[in-house]
Amino acid sequence: MKTLSIENTGFQLKRFALLGMSGLGKTFISRRLAEKDNWSHYSVDYEIGNLLFKSQYRNLLDGFEIDNLTNLSNFLGKPGSLSMGGIPFSEYLKRQKLHRDAEIKATLDACLLVERSPDLSHMVCDTSGSICELVNPFDESDKILTSLSKNFVIICLEAPDSIYQVLIDRFLANPKPMYYEENFLRFLWDNYKNHASDVNDQINPDEFMVYGFKALIKRRKEIFDTISKNWGISLDFEKLRKIKSAVDLIDAIQFAIMSKTKSQ
Length: 264
Hints:
Elements: H1 9-12, E1 15-19, H2 26-37, E2 40-43, H3 44-56, H4 70-76, H5 89-116, E3 123-126, H6 143-151, E4 153-158, H7 161-173, H8 182-195, H9 205-231, E5 233-236, H10 237-242, H11 246-263
Parallel strand pairs: 1-3, 1-4, 2-3, 4-5
């Protein structure tokens, strides 16, 4: 869908949007560019929190920063038994919708920032791991992907299957709140209740989050693979984490763009 070349504005001005599952290093790479090469770093997760908390949850702004997004996870919460630290499923849905609206705005705001300053260069947009739940990579007119691809080079972090098992193991050790597309979430919730407990307040929230994450990680990998194919490029996350400078990153992106161009 998206025709890429090193002549595209996003590459010429060194504006890159990093996409991929949480835990693959998007923020790590972005922070390295900001600290070592003085690039602009736009964190969608951070902007989501700002949008959510500045309205009616201002107390959650305390301690909330790019390197500490804990309050955003805590805000989403986990559905299930209140006595086990969960929240009612209806409340969970409400917070999921608030997160969705904020993520859409925060992502499009990154594009507006560029469009208002068209000469802005050397910028990395560190997207949320749930961006794949907001887009349709098969739709040529998808608003978010169209806006991102117009202003940035879309880069999906690619990882071997073994890494996804590592992410699952990390999650097992410390289950945390996640964002789900609503229809998928309702399907998971109903299916889990059929096998665990039909009574919402008897569901262990951590056990549901583990169940949901295993389903989510497979779903998201497939979506990110399609985004990479139709809208951008993919780069191996292990190689990216070893990159020491912006020059190395630019070379890797240029090589990926040229390789994809030749194969089209």
